[in-house]
Design brief:
143 residues; mainly alpha; 0% strand; elongated; transmembrane; transmembrane helix; YneK; membrane; DUF2621 domain-containing protein
């Protein structure tokens, strides 16, 4: 009986350490995003800046498209992904000196914000929406 209890305690300890490790990993990633870069501003600060500067440029149609494009992202991470993507879209819009976020700007920013490992899901989603990817092929990272 004592061996069973000891084994359960050991298993519980490993489970607890594993869960704390996973949580710590995500906390550390967020910490690194908040860490200032060479210019004194963090990646998250830039995201927030681009979102704030372009907030007035979004129309409902583009907001709905963004919602649809991030729908494959697990709900737990969807808000974080949406903020990162919206920040990149805002950056593209400001860089191109646009007055409004169009579908072209949205798709370009979305592709640039999407990690290489997730680009196949992005392609699938764009195909489902019947969006021609030919003008954006140069933005995809080679496999």
């Amino acid at each position: 009986m004592s061996i069973v209890v000891d084994m359960l305690i050991i298993l519980w300890g490993f489970l607890l350490l594993g869960l704390m490790g996973v949580g710590g990993f995500f906390m550390f990633r967020k910490f690194l995003k908040k860490w200032p870069k060479e210019d004194g501003t963090s990646a998250m600060d830039w995201e927030e800046y681009y979102i704030e500067e372009t907030k007035h440029m979004w129309h409902n149609q583009e907001k709905e498209l963004l919602e649809d494009l991030v729908s494959p992202v697990p709900e737990l991470f969807r808000d974080v992904a949406k903020q990162k993507i919206a920040g990149k879209i805002g950056e593209v819009a400001l860089r191109k000196k646009r007055d409004v976020v169009t579908q072209d700007i949205l798709i370009e920013g979305y592709i640039l914000a999407t990690p290489k490992r997730d680009q196949k899901f992005l392609r699938k989603k764009l195909n489902q929406r019947k969006i021609d990817m030919t003008p954006y092929e140069h933005l995809f990272e080679p496999e």
